[in-house]
Amino acid sequence: MCLAVPVQVARIQGSTGWVRTAAGEVRVDLTLVPQVRVGDWVLVHAGFALQVLDEEEARRSLEEWRRAVEHL
Amino acid sequence: MEGVVSLAHGDGGLATRELLREVFLKYLDDPALRRLEDSARVDFPGPCLVLTTDAFVVSPLFFPGGDIGCLSVYGTVNDLCCLGADPLFLTASFVLEEGLRLADLERIVASMAQATRRVGVRLVAGDTKVVPRGMADGLYVTTSGVGHIPPGTDLRPERISPGDRILVSGTIGDHGVAVLAARHRLLEGEATLASDCGPVHRLAGAARRFAPGLKVMRDPTRGGLATVLKELAEAGRCDLLVEEEALPTDPAAAAVAELLGLDLLYLASEGKLVAVAAPEAADAILQAWRQLPEGQRASCVGEVREGSGRVLLKTALGGTRELHLVTGEPLPRIC
Amino acid sequence: MPSNIFEAFSDPQLGRRLLAHLRELVGDEPMLMMEVCGTHTVAVSRAGLRSLIRPLELRSGPGCPVCVTDDSDLAAVVRLAKTERVTVATYGDMLRVPSSAGSLAEARAAGADVRVVYSALEGLKLAQQRREREVVLVAVGFETTAPGAALAARRAVERGVSNFSMVSLHKLIPPALQALLSPGRAALRGLLLPGHVSTVIGSRAFEFLSREFALPAAVAGFEPLDILGALITLVRAAKAGHPAVYNCYRRAVRPQGNPRARALLEEVFRPAPARWRGLGVVPDSGLVLREEYSAVDAARRFGIVPEESMPAPGCRCGEVLLGRIIPPECPLFGNGCTPGAPRGPCMVSSEGSCQAYYRYERGGELVGRRG
Q1: Looking at residue B56, which CATH number applies to its domain?
Q2: Which residues of B touch A24 (CB under 8 A)?
């Protein structure tokens, strides 16, 4: 349905941003995430940032899954 | 050289001669070519001659890591090397579109010349034609190559047998991703993503030293590694089992492929070699490849099994996925 | 250690241990679940996961915007591409999908100007650069892609880019699931919900699934760990009989989604009935441009009236999606419905259940022309 990739915001200019990838900077539109700041991670789909990612929630999910498989 | 290509450059008269002298011969200064005769007479060292030809229509003409000029040399040279030949002579024919900037043409021809020197082949004959604006995408180049195969060389997929190893000389899909990223102007600022456009003559030469164990070589261009492996499996009438975690990928190429929804297994490389070899030869070939700058990421990615021509990818999770031939080149996906 | 926390979601070691735990939970009880989203379908197949989790069976759902585009809509777009001065901008996914009027790739080969774009804004930029052309964006996609098209529409109107328009073929997931499940959930025990649609509409938008259909549903991300973590949650909930909507993609999905994106959708589009390939017309499941944006409405500008799509008599895609039947039990499977001439979404997608069956039965090779 929708391919989207987590990338980090390197620069912001108005509603346009540049995210850092291993290949260099990619221009993305930030209109849908007005609260974004440089250094935030965003989900990019078809040239747009869809959401600012929550790193704390990411850690919690990983921790939850690691606990679920401790017994193995 | 200033200005643009005009139809006059194609009429065989003064303008054509000036173009040949000011642009082509300025860089491609081979003795046979300089004679500008209808064909070139050269000495040929042995009984077994290898011949190939390829057309190059890449757009854009310039992309990170290469251009249509060096690509047109390496593409044909690599095809010769895959059969175990030493590349010796090239010919090149150009279709120039009216309006092509001469400065661009000059850059492309200079890049071709530099590529021939790097590989040590002679470009001995050529032709240029000009077509009206709109009839070609700036420039098309067709190169043909002649090589010599040392006696006793026998590289054929039919020689593949169960237990053989599958080797790749480096990261996969780099050219395909670089061209797509350039076409969609995806990357801004200084980008680290580049085509792997380059010659495989030293890689092929190193592999050939282990001849009896070396069964076949290919360069994974159009259709990428997956397509080449499928062709080898079918021609060799066996199955190829590939380990996903062993596939060498370049971080920059992987990042862009993920962003555009592309599968690196189906994207072209323009400077890599795939080889199938018996186990002992395979280890020796890997060692030899890793001594070369263009072989730093050489890896064994799988092995040959009894079978019927399938290519099975063992995924990082331990599952299996079959790799099929696909229709059409990979395109950016949203789903 | 991965360079950033998000790379950890494809860590093979933890992935293999989560897989072992999932298999422990599944045991030998056959269970049918659906991955609604086409991107999940591709991710599951690429990870080679389907064979590893049996007897838990994952069935591909209607969540590929390309596959569910109705033949009549696509045929209308292909005919439009052949119109004088029209340049069609399309995502790569649509280029080779066959229709009764051929594919966009075939139209291009016959001289139509068809360009592949990576984003809706690339289509708008094309129109700004080529003012002599009528640039028409084939705006397919679900709630994830639609905001991008909405923004392109708004910018085109604001900047007076009069040669830009779009054919809005956007689809909405909740109404489609409602329609699909209304005859009852059949053998389905759980739903893997589209993570990126949910970043926009929020996990709360799926609560009707547990309320009305007693189905456990998990909003999932697309890395191997996300999918395995969500399946573990679903299998536990199905066995314990706790139907609820579980948000297993909390790093990206909030209960209310992305308010700014939803407001933009509301501003530019309004819900309307839409034709889904293989499922027929589903009320309120499409998005059409509002009156204020009629200037970018290609349907209006070019008078596109898709012919009444002759619903493929005998097409039982809906039942395949629900696991009521397996592809070979559909009367059209392999005769009248092939990868080259697909009647339903399950045959269009290279990862769809019907095309997977079609290939598998023919020794893994694709038989029949692929558009």
Answers
A1: 3.30.1330.10
A2: 187-193, 252
Listed in sequence order, the residues at least 6 apart from C320 whose beta carbon sits closer than 8 Å to its beta carbon are: C59, C326, C327, C330, C344, C346, C353, C354
Give the range of the structural domain holding residue B165, as residue numbers without chain letter: 157-323
Closest CA to C216 of C247, C248, C249, C238: C238
Return the axis-axis angle of helices B68-82 and B102-119, rounded to nearest 10°. Answer: 30
B305 and B168 inside one domain: yes
* Residue B68 near residue B56 (C-beta atoms within 8 A): yes
Residue range C311-332, pLDDT digits in tens: 567 778 777 877 778 888 899 9
Which is nearest to B206 in space by CA: B294, B293, B107, B289? B289
Domain membership of residue B116 (yes or no) is yes
Q: What is the identity of the amino acid at B325?
A: L
Q: Reduced to 3 states, what is the DSSP secondary structure of residue B243?
A: strand
Query: Sign of the CA dihedral B173, B174, B175, B178?
Result: positive
- For residue A32, list chain C residues with Cβ-Cβ distance below 8 A: 147, 151, 258, 260-261, 264
DSSP for B47-98, written as a single string: S-EEEEEEEE--SSSEETTEEHHHHHHHHHHHHHHHTTPEEEEEEEEEEEET
Q: How confident is the model at residue C363 (pLDDT cuts 50, 70, 90)?
A: very low
- pLDDT tens digits for C109-133? 999 999 999 899 999 999 999 999 9
Average pLDDT, chain B: 95
Which residue of chain A is at minimal alpha-carbon distance from C194?
A1
Chain C neighbors (3+ CB pairs < 8 Å): A, B
CATH number at residue B228: 3.90.650.10
Q: How far apart are CA C286 and CA C280, in angstroms?
A: 12
Residues linked to residue C32 through DSSP beta bridges, in sequence order = C57, C188
In angstroms, what CA-CA distances link C112 with C128, C250, C366? Answer: 19, 44, 28
Q: Is C118 in contact with B314 (Cβ distance < 8 A)?
A: no
- Give CA–CA dist B275/B284, Å, rounded: 12
pLDDT in tens, A9-54: 999 999 999 999 999 999 999 999 999 999 999 999 999 999 999 9
Decide if C250 and A53 are in contact by the 8 Å CB cutoff: no
Instruction: Residue A38: give its domain's CATH number.
Output: 2.30.30.140
Q: CA of B204 to nearest chain C CA: how many angstroms apart?
A: 32
Pairwise CB contact (< 8 Å): A23 & B252: yes
Q: Give me the interface pTM, i.e. the ipTM.
A: 0.89
> Residue C105 has what pLDDT?
92
Residues in chain C with CB shorter than 8 Å from the CB of A48 are: 119, 147-148, 151
At B178-193, the pLDDT tens digits run 999 998 889 998 889 9
Touching partners of B (3+ C-beta pairs < 8 Å): A, C
pLDDT band, very low/low/confident/very high, at C364 (cuts 50, 70, 90)? very low
Task: Using CB atoms, list chains with 3+ pairs below 8 Å to chain A.
Answer: B, C
Domain-embedded: residue B335: no
Q: Which of A26, A28, A41 to mutate against chain B (most B CBs within 10 Å)?
A: A26
Q: Mean pLDDT throughout C255-273?
A: 98
Is C335 an 8 Å CB contact of chain B? no
User: What is the distance between the alpha carbons of residues C211 and C222, in angstroms, rounded to a whole number?
Assistant: 26
pLDDT tens-digit map of C241-263: 999 999 999 999 999 999 999 99
Specify if B209 maps to a domain. yes
